[in-house]
Structures are given as C-alpha cells and as structure tokens.
Specification:
Helices cover 68% and strands 0% of the residues. It has helices at residues 20-44, 47-63, 71-95, 100-103, 112-116, 118-128, 132-142, 148-155, 159-180.
Length: 188
C-alpha cells in the first residue's frame, strides 16, 4: 500500500526524534571505551587522568562523527587522539612540576589482572618510566598489536622513527627489568 501511515515526529517538551547517528556513536563508544581508557592509563599511569582523557576523546569524537568514514577510521581516530591527549596531559604535568612516574605507586594504576600478577604490575611500573615516545610505540605495538607502519600513522611519525623507538624502548625496558626484576629472571 502506497498510502501507509508513516509516523511523524514532533518535538514535544524534551522529546526528540530518534538520532541514528547517536546510535552509531553509542555502539562505537561501547566497543572502544576500554581501548581508549587503557591507552590513556598506560600512557599517564593515573586512573583519574585516564578517565578524564577518555571522556574528552569521546566528546571530541561525538563532535567529529560526521567526518568519520567507517569503523576502521573510527578506531584509528580514537587511538590517535587518545595518544595525543595523553601526551599533552603528561606535558602539562611536567610544566607544573609533577612527574607522574614518581607519583605512581604499584597499585595506583594497576588493573585487576596486574594486581593479581606481581610481575604484570611491576612491568607496568617499568613501562611507565620509559620516555613518552618509546612508551607510546611499545603500548601501541604490544597492547594494540599494531604494525610499525600503523603506529607511524597513528603517531604521525616516520616508520623508521617508530622502529627506532621500539628498539630503544625494548632495550631500555630489558635493562631496567634485569636490574629491578632479578627474582623473575632465570639464571643462565
């Protein structure tokens, strides 16, 4: 029937017609909120700051939804903005004279998994002591399982720089682990 009734949406009070973009935002938020929070937490070492960064990232994401071209672009965008906001937050802290690595204690930024695994928590603390660029590259490589090319695109850096940061970061992390985690290293 061509003359079927179609519902009309009138604004009555606070009622608004369904917003289909909002549904997409909510689905993307549900799917990626833990990734955004986890990246911010690993970068900053501060749960409260990570929550604040995640909230800011998703508010900006909502404002920019029209520019997002698909699911993969959304993930790329969320990673890139999260890493950028985390780096900005660390720089603001340093400018105020607060070094997060000094403030951070073993349980402050630890996840449930890390609290039940003493090695995981201690590795997280060692990771937090790496320079920002090395930490960012390692987090994106081993937490997000990105290739060096994908990391370079996310961070806006040359691939060679990312590979160098990974190599230097792992070397530094290994040296710190050898000196601070002796009880976990096998005698050769």
């Amino acid at each position: 029937m061509a003359d079927e009734w179609q519902p009309e949406f009138e604004q009555v009070g606070d009622f608004e017609p369904p917003d289909f973009e909002r549904l997409d935002f909510e689905r993307l938020f549900d799917e990626h909120q833990s990734m955004v929070f986890s990246l911010a937490l690993r970068m900053t070492g501060d749960r409260g700051l990570a929550e604040e960064i995640a909230q800011d990232v998703f508010m900006e994401f909502d404002r920019n939804m029209a520019k997002i071209e698909g699911a993969q672009h959304a993930i790329f965008w969320l990673r890139r903005v999260t890493m950028s906001r985390s780096t900005d937050a660390l720089r603001r802290r340093r400018a105020r004279g607060m070094d997060f690595a000094v403030e951070m204690d073993e349980n402050h930024a630890a996840t449930v998994e890390e609290r039940t695994s003493p090695l995981g928590g201690r590795l997280g603390i060692l990771l937090a002591t790496l320079p920002e660029a090395q930490r960012a590259a390692i987090i994106l490589r081993y937490q997000e399982d990105l290739t060096p090319e994908e990391i370079a695109a996310t961070l806006g850096a040359p691939v060679a720089t990312v590979k160098s940061q990974l190599q230097r970061g792992l070397k530094l992390l290994r040296a710190k682990a050898e000196s601070q985690l002796k009880e976990y290293i096998r005698a050769v």
